[in-house]
């Protein structure tokens, strides 16, 4: 089977890749001894030199480099966008948790203060009753206003 016949049978994705490379291909026989493979190496170097000359002395064309750079920037932007989104979600969850904890602490503080005020009011009332006889005075005052 020739190299061209073999290329005709490769998967579509590989054919597409070869086409993107300007249909430039080179076959290597890996079973050759080092001195026998010299011709293959020379052919590869010639192909590389021709390609570099065609690209104005560069290994890549400016267009290929720009396209690769655009793809890299898009990937970076996607990664940064995902990282920011995750960080914002974590921060939001933390704030919500913190808000709930703070609200619960404030609620407990308000209830504690209310209980303290109730207890103080009871203590003051007991003190007034015990010390000044408030109840008899209050009853006397109320009776003074009653018609009977």
Automatic annotation (TrEMBL):
UniProt protein name: GTPase IMAP family member 7
Source organism per UniProt: Magallana gigas
Gene3D superfamilies in the record: P-loop containing nucleotide triphosphate hydrolases
Keyword Cytoplasm assigned: no
Similarity field: Belongs to the TRAFAC class TrmE-Era-EngA-EngB-Septin-like GTPase superfamily. AIG1/Toc34/Toc159-like paraseptin GTPase family. IAN subfamily.
Family matches, as InterPro entries: G_AIG1 (IPR006703), GIMA/IAN/Toc (IPR045058), P-loop_NTPase (IPR027417)
Keywords per UniProt: GTP-binding, Nucleotide-binding
Example of a GO MF term: GTP binding
Pfam families registered for this protein in UniProt: AIG1
Phylogenetic classification of the source organism: Eukaryota, Metazoa, Spiralia, Lophotrochozoa, Mollusca
Domain AIG1-type G: 3-75
């Amino acid at each position: 089977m020739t190299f061209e016949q073999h290329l005709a049978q490769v998967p579509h994705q590989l054919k597409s890749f070869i086409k993107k490379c300007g249909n430039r291909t080179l076959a290597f026989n890996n079973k050759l001894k080092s001195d026998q493979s010299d011709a293959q190496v020379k052919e590869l170097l010639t192909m590389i030199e021709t390609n570099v000359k065609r690209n104005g002395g560069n290994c890549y064309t400016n267009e290929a480099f720009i396209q690769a750079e655009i793809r890299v920037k898009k990937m970076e932007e996607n990664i940064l966008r995902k990282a920011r989104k995750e960080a914002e979600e974590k921060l939001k969850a933390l704030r919500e948790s913190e808000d709930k904890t703070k609200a619960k602490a404030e609620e407990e503080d308000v209830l504690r203060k209310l209980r303290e005020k109730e207890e103080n009011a009871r203590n003051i009332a007991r003190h007034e009753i015990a010390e000044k006889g408030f109840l008899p005075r209050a009853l006397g005052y109320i009776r003074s206003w009653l018609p009977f």
